[in-house]
Amino acid sequence: MKNSTFINQTIRIAEIIKSGFSASLFTLVLGGFLSPVPVIAQHGDREFRNRENDQRDRVEQPRHENRDNHNNYDNKQRYNQPPRTEMRRYPGNPAPRPRYVERNTVIIDRSRPSWQYASLPRRNTVIQAVPSTSVSIAFGGINFRYNNGIYYKPYRNTYIVAPPPFGIRVRYLPVGFRVVNVYNRTYNYYNGAYYEPVGNEYVVVPPPVGALVESIPDGYETLQINGETYYIVDGVQYRAVINNGEIWYEVIKVG
């Protein structure tokens, strides 16, 4: 009788396992005692198979690398900006050429004595009309026209670019003038003219001997004496000298 009961209980356990109950604790009554027998889910268990199917069906979303852009994620875990893609080099897709930005480059040729004033009209040049910004200055019986350091003298029905006459006065110094110190005296130099302050104006004075300037007016003449070159402009004689490693021009004779 006892054997028949044990066989019936065993058959019942097999039916329970087959029906899909797993990891359950079954109570068996053997010989009048309660004996707990744990039943462990086998590989063929339905719940195990369901978990395995869920893991197999789960598709991992692609991960985007964020090496350089340093983008932030929003609440939906998406990039605010697309990741940067790198261009690979192969015969059909050569490496991109570097892009160059063109800029206006000014090359200064300091080999010419007049390099600083090369864009200004040269001495004794005849022009048909003076700039509209020029002002009239009467001096020595001549009605000069003056425009930012350039003096225009009437010549027939035109004008000629004239050297600055000594003694003429202007209200404002030219834009770009240089300060020159000679024997404790200060001069304001621009394009061959030397100015000294007089009241509220500036008067053109003769160039001081020994003055050093970076550049002289265009329209100069050259003179060779004992193998040395001199430059003459407006009746003033200059010679090239080295000043702080650069070529400057020294006034050595006036008139």
Structure write-up:
With 255 residues, the chain is mainly beta. Helices cover 12% and strands 36% of the residues. The protein has helices spanning 2-19, 46-57; strands at 24-30, 33-39, 126-127, 135-139, 142-147, 150-155, 158-162, 169-170, 178-182, 185-190, 193-198, 201-205, 212-213, 221-225, 228-233, 236-243, 246-254. The strands form 4 sheets. The chain has a 5-stranded antiparallel β-sheet with strand order 3-7-6-5-4, with no helix packed on it. A 5-stranded antiparallel β-sheet has the order 8-12-11-10-9, with no helix packed on it. A hairpin with a 2-residue loop joins β1 (24-30) and β2 (33-39).
Summarize the topology.
Blueprint: H1 2-19, E1 24-30, E2 33-39, H2 46-57, E3 126-127, E4 135-139, E5 142-147, E6 150-155, E7 158-162, E8 169-170, E9 178-182, E10 185-190, E11 193-198, E12 201-205, E13 212-213, E14 221-225, E15 228-233, E16 236-243, E17 246-254
Spatial order of strands in the largest sheet: 3-7-6-5-4
The arrangement of helices and strands along the chain is HEEHEEEEEEEEEEEEEEE
Main beta-sheet strand count, sense and barrel state: 5 strands, antiparallel
Integer count of domains: 2
Instruction: Give the helix/strand class.
Output: mainly beta
Shape: elongated
Number of strands: 17
Mean pLDDT value:
78
Region (Disordered): 45-102
Biased composition (Basic and acidic residues): 45-77
